[in-house]
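Service request form, structural biology core

Requester: graduate student, group of Dr. S.
Request type: structure prediction, single chain
Budget code: on file
Notes: please return the result as structure tokens.

Sequence provided:
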Amino acid sequence: MIAQLQNELVEGEPCLVCGSIEHHAKPALEISNQELKEAMEDVDESQRAFAATEVSTQQALANHDQLKVKLENKLIELERIKNERDENYVALKSSSNLELPEKIDLSAIEKVIKLAREKNNVKFEKNKKTDRRN
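Core staff response, request fulfilled:
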């Protein structure tokens, strides 16, 4: 833009920027109108790309904020479900004949259930044999 204004200076005519009619400085670069036009088009394209990136960034930030709220809500829901699970486990433990661990430990619970099934299966097999004899 400065180069264009410098190229358009005419000795004896006022400068469009400062109004002076004396133009002592010569253009720093000799640039053709075509080169100037291409440079200005490049600047315009860069400005459009910047604006598009800015919009994209704003959309990404808004999306991030929405996802953050969703995550916070899911974490609250997860905490509620964990509390409900713990309450149900306490109720199950108090009403069950099984010797369940104090805290939920899935591997320990699976072992207890497996032992209980094996025990009941043995009882079932004994009852089956007794029923056949009768």
